[in-house]
Structures are given as structure tokens and as C-alpha cells.
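Quick one:
INPUT:
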């Protein structure tokens, strides 16, 4: 069963603006097009009114007020849908503005209202009734539906595209945004939609440059010649500026006054009217990190951004091209970026990073996202060809009765059900299944899925858990927040505060009677809840990073089996971050330990965190390595605690601990060994699950979350590693898995 959030790509916010404010400003038509600082609202209405307020991908967007009259309101409800109007034949015969100027005045007077109305729709957008529902489309969307020629003729109206264009309009008008980063499905129409916007921008803007990039230079050229140029050529004369050069150029489309050749015939002819061109161009560049470096761009069309392969790097390219869209701190241009994702080792990892850095819900002090872009993801079921009804709405689930599609054919099965059937049919071919997930993702996790057949752990269980978590409203299960000392006084009480910008993700907090359980013993502070759970930590020592290559610090909290008012054998905290200084990280880790009153096990090859605890009097919180008796510890180990990361025995035990936890507590237990067969495991932290899926025991440095979480498990199971008199070495055998099929199999 899917959550409401997964089946809705936007929300309508009720009572977002005080009613009296809304009524008064609508009456006066004083709502301004653009970002409204007071209400943190991006208004895309150009008529001064404000109607429905949408939330799309963490961006709050205000639409114009719904009108009382619609062009198609006389149609029967079942016939009310988007239908492009037919351009009058007499106007179709007019080839240019020069030809128009030659027409009689009475002819021009008879058509001027029609032309002006088209310009109004282009600028303001328009409304129509769709199966009785008032529906707004932006001006850019109107240009796409009405005046854009694609490979199948006129584009279809789709609700998913309406939301896409509303989001794009907000990106354009928001002074804080460099544009959008769109994670799409295959054949969503993005290439045509972005090409349409390129032509639309170029034909209304003076002295501007429009650029095109794709995964290769050949792809960019093909997009220019096969999409951009035909769209431009298909525009009616009143939207088409004076064009210089060939009708079908290969490298540059220029809207400017062509140079006239002087001849004996025309040298004495003068024209009183000064013909003015836009002096705007559209061109494409070969794919490289430095494409358009030093150029000034009004609009950048960035297609197939998730498929840039080495040596090209979309992250490096965006750092360069971003400067082409601004003058100083002022944003002067916008980027429309969109793509499906390649596998992570073929450009997908860089695109994933860029997409995650474009979350409109996470901003810096300048009000911008880390990338400057706003990300948007629309699940495949909303835009899947063959599963859209005649009103442009997706048929998500199998209907009781067949539904008429936009092509007039009956739709008998829902998009979600079709997708599940495809997944089932590909279950024996992991490579094909992963490619299907990336091409037609229902979640962001699907879009970036990249299994490794060499994975040490049971991938079946991990991805069962990931898919289950995707179906939840995780905000109801996990809280983001931060820890602070009470009244800012260190070494007193720690308080947890929900905070959208906090670095901690927490699924459980103890009751008041269990918080801040710390006791003194011989002047040293010890945790009072070590019987309930423990922390594991992957620390770092150096604050700065070299070219952004520093790893994150990671902290995980996990409970043991217990009889207190706490969950058993569950991870309850995830922290994966790299604050500005290492000292901030150390203090945040310390506060978490104090708040929960639990000990911590961390690797001692980076000892500054351990010194931080010791110097503050919290040496009792730092666990000693469990695989050695105290009298066998080195001098440094006795002083600080911690466990080495160089020991092969420790590495094996660490991996075995994670493997055992996954078997018992992650995904479904088909054999019913540890819990009911239909009961899903409890592991809400997605970053950690993704780290487990990719974990490589021979190269552990890249997997901060896996290191930290494994140490938390080992800390809770320290009794398993206690040496006996007969044995001094750890001997732990853990299973290995064959991940060739849909269900991981133990290699015996």
C-alpha cells in the first residue's frame, strides 16, 4: 500500500495566507509576480491575484485566482479537455512580419485581437475546464501545447507536465534560483519541453544567448537540429522574430536583422521604418567541464545530465556554467536540467550528488540551495505512455472498468500494476532490472539504484527495506533536529530540538526519566543507560578538506534487547555530516551520548574525538576494544579507549556484525526465523541502507555510515568478542551471498 505522499506530486495548502489579507490584496490586485519574502512564497500570477497555493518538491508556489468564465465551459463535462486551437488558414499563409506589413489595414484590424490574445496567453498562461475542473497552465506550457511541433504532432496535455511547468515558472521567477534539476523517466517529453522553452525565451529576449548541452556534443547537435530548429520554424509569423542565416542551421540559430546586399535596384530605395532585430542566438557546445566558460547565458538547456561519463563531469561543468548565469550575486539566467540516471559509476553518482544538493527545503544563509538549482522528481506512474486518460490524468491502479486513454484506446490496467509485473518478469536478471528501475523509477531510490553483485550483504533484504521506507511518510517516523546544552552551559543537561536544518535524524528519544543519565565515578563521568544501547562513530581529525574530498563524520545509535521503555535491537539515530570544524562534530557527538546516556565505540586511528571526551571528563563513555582484555591493551588504548581499524580480525567482525543485523532485522524474513513472514524490519535510515548495499570490505574508507553503524552493533554485542584464555583471536564466520537473482542466496 502506497502512502498518500507517493501518489501525489503536489499539495494544495489551505489557509496559507490569512483570509483577510488574501481577500483585500486580491480585490486590489496587488500581489506581485516573483518571490514574496514575507510569506516565503513564489507567485507566478501576473494579474495581481492569488488563488491556489501549491507545494511542489518543497517549493511553495502561488497560482492566479480562478476565473469565473472559461473558453470551453459550454461543452459537456465529459467533453471538457485540452484541445489545441487551429491556426486560421489566412494567417498561416503569412510568412513574416514583412508580409504582414504589406497586408491591407482592414485585414490587419480583423486579426489584431486574435494575435494580441495569443500574446496574452503566452505571457500570463490560461485556464480551461478539464472534466469540469478549472485547470491553469503557464504561458510556457501553453506555447508547448499550442505552438510546438514534436515527433508525433501536437503534444498531449498531461497533468504531470502541468506540474512540471508550474514548478519551472517558479524557478524562473524566483530570484534565489538558478533553475531546476529534473529527475525524469524515459520518454517523458523533457527534450521537447526544454527545446520549446529555449525557443520561447529566445524569441522574446533581446541581446541574449541560449545554450544547449547534452551527454555528448553529437547529442547536443541533434537536439538543436531535430528539435530546436523545427520548433522555431513552426512558430506563427507573429511569434517569429527576424532570422538571419539558413532556415535549417547546423550550429547557430540567430534572431537578428540580416545584412542586405546593396544592388543597383535597391540602392536608392529607403524605408522610413527602422527594422529592429532581437540579436539573440541559440547554439550548442561540445560536452566538457568548461563548456560555455566565460559566456553570458540567458537560458541553458542541460539534457541527459545524469549520463556524463568520464572524463567529463557534470559537477565540474555545473560549477563552471553556473557562473555564466550570474553577474556578481545577481542571477541573470536560468538552467533547465533534466535526465534519467546512468549507473552510479557511469555518471550517475555525480548527478545524484547534484540532485541531492538541489533540495529547495535546504538553503544556505543566502537563501539558495547548495547547487543553486531546485530539484524535481515525478514518479513514472504519473507520466507513463499508454497509461494517461483522455483528460491527461494518470491511471495509477487497475480500474474497475476500462478507462479511455488519450489515444482513444481502453486502459485496462494501472501504471503501478504494469510496473510491478515488469519488475517481477525481470527478477532473474539483476542488470536488466536495475536498468528498468533507472529508466522508470517510482522513487528516487529506484532512479539511482546501483546494485553490486559483489555486495557482502543480503541485497534482497536491504532493497526490500528501502522500497518499504519509500512507501512511508518518513517524516512521521524520523525527526530531524539538533542537540544543545541547556541555557548554553556545557556539561549540564542536553536538550533535543526538532530543527529542519539539524544534522541529526532521530526515530526515538527516551522519556524524561531516561534522559541525561550520567554518573560520576572517581571523578570520571560514565553513561547510565549502557544497558539500553550504544553508539558507534566514524570520526575524522582534520577540519579542512582537500578539494572537497574529505569524508563525513558518522554517528549511529542503536538499542539492545531491554526491558525499559525503549525499542529493542533498533537503530534510533543517524548523523552523517561534516560541520565547519572538527570541534563542532566532536561536541555534537558528545551531546548525543550525554542525552541518551549511552557509551560510544569508535576507531582509535583518529584519536581527537577520544581526546575530546577524555579532556572533558567523559572517558567513561568511550568503550575499550571488546576483543582484548584490559591488561592486554596498549598504553594509548588504556588512556583513550577505541578500537583499531587496521586489524583484519576487527574488519571481519565488523562486517559480520552488520550481516547478522541485516538477516535478523532488515527486510522480510521469509522463513519466519526471527519474526512473522509478513512483518517488515525496522530500519528507517536510508543513507545507511544505501551504504550497506555498496559496502566493500577491502575499501572501507568511502562508507562512513557502514563503519559507524557496524561499530554500534559491535558495541551492543561486545560479549561476543570477549577473548577466552584458550583463544586470543576473534573467529567469526559470516555468510556470503550470491546476488545474481532477485533473491539473495547463501553461498554454502
Amino acid at each position: 500500500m502506497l502512502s498518500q505522499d507517493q501518489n501525489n506530486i503536489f499539495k494544495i495548502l489551505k489557509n496559507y495566507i490569512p483570509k483577510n489579507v488574501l481577500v483585500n490584496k486580491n480585490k486590489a490586485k496587488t500581489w506581485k509576480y516573483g518571490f514574496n519574502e514575507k510569506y516565503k512564497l513564489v507567485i507566478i500570477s501576473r494579474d495581481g491575484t492569488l488563488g491556489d497555493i501549491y507545494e511542489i518538491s518543497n517549493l511553495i508556489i502561488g497560482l492566479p485566482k480562478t476565473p469565473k468564465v472559461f473558453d470551453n465551459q459550454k461543452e459537456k463535462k465529459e467533453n471538457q479537455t485540452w484541445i489545441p486551437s487551429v491556426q486560421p488558414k489566412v494567417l498561416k499563409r503569412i510568412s513574416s512580419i514583412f508580409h504582414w506589413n504589406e497586408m491591407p489595414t482592414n485585414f490587419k484590424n480583423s486579426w489584431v485581437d486574435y494575435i494580441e490574445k495569443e500574446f496574452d496567453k503566452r505571457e500570463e498562461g490560461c485556464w480551461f475546464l478539464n472534466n469540469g475542473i478549472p485547470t491553469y497552465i503557464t504561458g510556457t506550457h501553453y506555447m508547448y501545447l499550442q505552438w510546438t511541433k514534436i515527433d508525433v504532432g501536437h503534444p498531449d496535455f498531461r497533468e504531470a507536465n502541468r506540474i512540471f511547468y508550474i514548478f519551472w515558472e517558479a524557478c524562473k521567477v524566483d530570484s534565489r534560483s538558478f533553475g531546476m534539476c529534473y529527475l525524469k523517466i524515459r520518454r517523458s517529453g523533457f527534450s521537447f519541453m526544454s527545446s520549446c522553452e529555449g525557443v520561447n525565451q529566445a524569441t522574446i529576449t533581446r541581446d541574449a544567448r541560449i545554450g544547449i548541452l547534452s551527454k555528448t556534443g553529437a547529442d547536443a547537435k541533434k537536439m538543436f537540429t531535430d528539435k530546436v530548429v523545427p520548433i522555431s520554424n513552426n512558430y506563427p509569423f507573429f511569434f517569429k522574430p527576424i532570422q538571419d542565416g539558413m532556415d535549417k542551421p547546423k550550429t547557430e540559430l540567430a534572431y537578428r536583422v540580416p545584412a542586405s546586399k546593396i544592388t543597383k535596384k535597391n540602392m536608392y530605395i529607403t524605408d522610413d521604418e527602422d527594422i529592429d532585430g532581437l540579436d539573440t542566438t541559440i547554439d550548442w557546445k561540445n560536452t566538457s567541464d568548461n563548456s560555455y566558460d566565460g559566456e553570458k547565458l540567458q537560458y541553458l538547456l542541460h539534457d541527459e545530465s545524469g549520463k556524463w561519463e568520464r572524463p567529463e563531469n557534470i559537477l565540474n561543468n555545473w560549477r563552471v556554467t553556473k557562473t555564466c548565469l550570474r553577474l556578481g550575486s545577481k542571477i541573470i539566467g536560468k538552467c533547465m536540467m533534466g535526465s534519467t540516471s546512468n549507473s552510479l559509476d557511469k555518471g550517475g553518482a555525480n548527478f545524484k550528488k547534484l540532485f541531492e544538493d538541489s533540495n529547495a527545503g535546504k538553503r544556505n544563509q543566502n537563501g539558495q540551495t547548495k547547487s543553486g538549482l531546485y530539484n524535481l522528481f515525478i514518479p513514472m506512474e504519473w507520466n507513463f505512455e499508454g497509461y494517461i486518460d483522455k483528460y491527461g490524468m494518470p491511471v495509477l491502479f487497475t480500474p474497475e472498468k476500462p478507462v479511455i486513454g488519450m489515444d482513444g484506446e481502453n486502459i485496462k490496467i494501472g501504471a503501478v500494476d504494469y510496473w510491478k509485473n515488469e519488475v517481477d518478469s525481470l527478477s532473474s536478471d539483476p542488470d536488466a532490472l536495475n536498468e528498468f528501475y533507472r529508466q522508470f523509477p517510482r522513487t528516487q531510490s529506484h532512479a539511482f539504484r546501483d546494485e553490486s553483485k559483489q555486495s557482502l550483504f543480503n541485497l534482497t533484504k536491504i532493497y526490500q527495506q528501502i522500497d518499504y521506507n519509500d512507501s512511508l511518510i518518513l517524516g512521521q517516523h524520523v525527526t530531524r533536529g539538533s542537540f544543545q546544552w541547556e541555557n548554553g552551559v556545557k556539561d549540564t543537561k542536553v536538550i533535543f530540538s526538532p530543527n529542519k536544518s539539524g544534522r541529526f535524524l532521530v526515530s526515538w528519544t527516551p522519556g524524561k526519566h531516561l534522559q541525561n543519565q550520567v554518573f560520576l565515578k572517581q571523578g570520571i563521568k560514565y553513561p547510565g543507560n549502557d544497558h539500553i544501547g550504544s553508539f558507534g562513530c566514524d570520526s575524522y581529525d582534520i577540519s579542512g578538506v582537500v578539494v572537497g574530498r574529505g569524508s563525513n563524520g558518522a554517528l549511529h545509535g542503536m538499542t539492545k534487547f531491554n526491558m525499559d521503555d525503549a525499542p529493542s535491537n533498533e537503530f534510533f539515530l543517524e548523523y552523517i555530516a561534516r560541520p565547519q570544524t572538527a570541534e563542532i562534530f566532536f561536541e555534537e557527538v558528545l551531546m548525543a551520548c550525554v542525552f541518551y546516556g549511552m557509551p560510544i565505540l569508535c576507531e582509535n586511528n583518529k584519536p581527537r574525538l577520544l581526546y575530546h571526551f577524555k579532556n572533558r571528563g567523559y572517558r567513561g563513555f568511550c568503550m575499550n576494544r571488546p576483543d582484548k582484555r584490559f591488561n592486554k591493551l596498549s598504553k594509548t588504548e588504556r588512556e583513550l579507549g577505541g578500537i583499531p581499524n587496521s586489524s583484519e580480525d576487527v574488519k571481519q567482525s565488523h562486517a559480520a556484525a552488520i550481516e547478522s543485523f541485516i538477516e535478523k532485522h532488515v527486510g522480510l524474513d521469509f522463513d519466519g526465523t526471527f519474526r512473522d513472514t509478513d512483518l517488515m524490519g525496522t530500519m528507517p535510515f536510508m543513507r545507511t541502507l544505501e551504504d550497506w548495499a555498496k559496502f566493500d570490505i577491502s575499501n572501507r574508507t568511502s562508507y562512513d555510515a557502514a563503519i559507524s553503524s557496524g561499530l554500534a552493533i559491535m558495541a551492543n554485542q561486545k560479549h561476543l568478542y570477549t577473548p577466552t584464555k584458550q583463544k586470543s583471536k576473534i573467529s567469526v564466520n559470516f555468510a556470503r551471498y550470491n546476488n545474481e537473482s532477485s533473491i539473495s542466496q547463501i553461498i554454502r
